[in-house]
């Protein structure tokens, strides 16, 4: 029997194929990018649609997609048409750069359909993501836990994807997340937030078409290409609030089921750049202050990505910064902007690497230099030379502990007779979560554990104030509204300071093993990261689980608990 419905579907597919093929041909002819709004689920933005009326858009056969303070993205049937050309030129005359995509009539019909949601009154156009203060206040007031944010997303019903992204961003800010992760998995999309270094799944029920729309919206905001889906792209945008601007750094990569996005939230309020706020013990802080007050020398901070190295180095810069000295940095990238510091950023396209940047910086008559990372022999050599010629130099290395920086430098080709005199201090650090003061619960300690703690304290360096730990207590995480139900609120550093003194320099000249260096450092009073972490456990600041997550198993405690 003849199937009219099937025939109709086939005719619609044929019509769509013909229209999209025609649009591709037109785009190639004009020299512009083609875009399929329907299948790629490109979201239309409320503010952009308020810029061009529906009547004008239909006459010109175009639809606005995205707008910032300086740029507007437009999808057009043919930008050479007189009506379209007039609108585009008027936008340029207003100071906008106009990014144009060629689309089919079907795509235009899809885009025009959103005009029914545009209110008659227009609002001021902003070049930043406008999380309106009232909306932000509401979300900040309502989102106290991950479940609250999940509920907001589950109940979302607006046709404008931009409003969903606002909820995600404001919710992440309310929960003090450092990163937003969005990942496609099979037939759905997942949202996760990194809070205090740990990833938490917030929502795993995005339909793929909604997920793709959110990703496209993020691309528009980050000034990334919509039509590129099989290559990595990096960008950034700004959330403008009345009291501050929050930078969001975007990374998009292709994955098995679609594009994966990570957004790093750089909120100036979250940056602790006061040296005293980072978690130093008193004896360590004295050493740090004495070392950074020296006019020259190389101070290294070691650890993996995300261990707090940059924050610590920024705190050093803030501590030494005065109008009488010049501070210059070469970073990749610049994380936060610091007053009184000339910050530069690595740019491989312009051949501005750490090494070439450092050479340029030295011609700028600096007193203090920060090198984001020492990765190669050339950068290592210049850093060492700089510290020996009257400069105070700060930098980072990727090693597991402070001792490991010495063999790493030697592997990079550094000469022992230069390395020894150049180095002043090597710091290793990790971040551990801080227990919520409101809900933490004390753990009863067995006699065996108390005896082990007593032995641990007695064996510590004499420079540690042991009177602080005569009445030890340990706590566990619980969870309450104050800490979003996580049991932890914020993070603190645990440190390991390796002071490079004359005894260590003599050892460096003898091609020492890491064990030789470790024994010498311990004999001179070094406290390891794990030991520093356990002292913070005894102060009720963090937990055993956090210290072991950051530094590995505490062996003596494991033996007691067998």
What can you see in these coordinates?
- The chain is an alpha/beta fold and 562 residues long.
- The protein has 3 domains: 4-117, Type II secretion system, protein E, N-terminal domain (GMP Synthetase, Chain A, domain 3, 2-Layer Sandwich), CATH 3.30.300.160; 133-269, 2-Layer Sandwich (Beta-Lactamase); 275-560, Rossmann fold.
- 40% of the residues lie in helices and 23% in strands.
- It has 22 helices and 19 strands.
- The strands form 4 sheets. Strands 13-12-14-15-11-16-19 form a 7-stranded mixed sheet, sandwiched between helices. Strands 7-6-5-10-9-8 form a 6-stranded antiparallel sheet, covered by helices on one side.
- A hairpin with a 3-residue loop joins β2 and β3.
- α16 packs antiparallel against α18 (502-508) and α20 packs antiparallel against α21 (544-551).
- Mean pLDDT is 90; it is low at 121-128.
Quantity of strands, as a count: 19
CATH third-tier fold name of the largest domain:
Rossmann fold
Distance between the termini: 77 Å
- What is the name of the CATH class of the largest domain? Alpha Beta
Query: For the residues shown, what is the average pLDDT?
Result: 90
Please report the number of helical segments: 22
Numbering strands along the chain, what is their spatial order in the largest sheet?
Answer: 13-12-14-15-11-16-19
Please outline the major beta sheet: 7 strands, mixed
Name the CATH homologous superfamily of the largest domain: P-loop containing nucleotide triphosphate hydrolases
What Rg, in angstroms, do the CA atoms define?
A: 29 Å
What percent of residues adopt helix (DSSP H or I)?
25-40%
Beta content comes to 15-25%
Poorly predicted ranges: 121-128
Q: Tell me the number of structural domains.
A: 3
Structural class: alpha/beta
């Amino acid at each position: 029997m003849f199937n009219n419905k099937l025939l109709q579907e086939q005719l619609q597919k044929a019509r769509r194929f013909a229209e999209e093929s025609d649009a591709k041909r037109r785009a190639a002819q004009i020299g512009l990018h083609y875009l399929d709004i329907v299948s790629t689920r490109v979201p239309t933005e409320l503010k952009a649609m308020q810029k061009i009326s529906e009547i004008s858009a239909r006459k010109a056969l175009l639809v606005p997609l995205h707008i910032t303070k300086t740029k507007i993205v437009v999808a057009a049937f043919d930008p050479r048409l007189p009506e379209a050309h007039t609108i585009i030129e008027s936008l340029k005359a207003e100071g906008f750069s106009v990014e144009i995509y060629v689309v089919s009539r079907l795509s235009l019909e899809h885009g025009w359909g959103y005009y029914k949601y545009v209110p008659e009154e227009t609002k001021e156009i902003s070049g930043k993501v406008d999380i309106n203060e009232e909306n932000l206040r509401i979300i900040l007031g309502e989102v106290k836990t991950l479940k609250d944010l999940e509920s907001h997303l589950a109940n979302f019903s607006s046709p404008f994807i931009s409003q969903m992204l606002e909820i995600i961003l404001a919710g992440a800010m309310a929960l003090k997340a450092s990163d937003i992760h969005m990942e496609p998995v099979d037939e759905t999309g997942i949202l996760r937030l990194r809070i205090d270094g740990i990833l938490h799944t917030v929502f795993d029920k995005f339909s793929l078409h909604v997920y793709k729309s959110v990703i496209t919206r993020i691309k528009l905001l980050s000034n990334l290409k919509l039509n590129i889906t099989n290559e990595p792209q990096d960008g950034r945008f700004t959330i403008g609030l009345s009291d501050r601007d929050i930078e969001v750094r975007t990374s998009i990569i292709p994955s098995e089921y679609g594009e994966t996005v990570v957004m790093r939230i750089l909120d100036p309020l979250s940056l602790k750049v006061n040296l005293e706020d980072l978690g130093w013990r008193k004896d360590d802080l004295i050493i740090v202050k004495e070392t950074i007050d020296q006019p020259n020398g190389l101070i290294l901070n070691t650890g993996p990505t995300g261990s707090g190295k940059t924050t610590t180095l920024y705190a050093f810069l803030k501590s030494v910064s005065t109008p009488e000295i010049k501070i210059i940095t070469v970073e990749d990238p610049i994380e936060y902007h610091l007053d009184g510091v000339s910050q530069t950023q690595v740019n491989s396209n312009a051949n501005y690497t750490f090494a070439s940047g450092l050479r340029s910086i030295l011609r700028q008559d600096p007193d203090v230099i920060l090198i984001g990372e020492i990765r190669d022999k050339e950068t290592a050599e210049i850093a060492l030379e700089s510290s020996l010629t009257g400069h105070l130099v700060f930098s980072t290395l990727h090693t597991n502990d402070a001792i490991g920086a010495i063999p790493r430098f030697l592997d990079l080709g550094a000469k022992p007779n230069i390395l020894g005199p150049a180095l002043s201090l090597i710091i290793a650090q990790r971040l551990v979560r801080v227990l919520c003061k409101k809900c933490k619960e004390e753990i009863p300690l067995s006699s065996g554990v108390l005896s082990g703690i007593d032995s641990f304290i007695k064996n510590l360096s004499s420079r540690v104030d042991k009177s602080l730990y005569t009445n030890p207590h340990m706590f566990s995480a619980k969870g309450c509204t104050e800490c979003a139900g996580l049991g932890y609120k914020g993070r603190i550093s645990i440190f390991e300071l390796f002071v490079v003194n004359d005894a260590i320099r003599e050892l460096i000249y003898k091609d020492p093993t890491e064990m030789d260096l470790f024994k010498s450092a311990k004999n001179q009073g070094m406290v390891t990261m794990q030991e520093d972490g356990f002292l913070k456990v005894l102060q009720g600041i963090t937990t055993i689980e956090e210290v072991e997550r950051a530094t590995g198993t505490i062996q003596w405690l494991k033996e007691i608990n067998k």
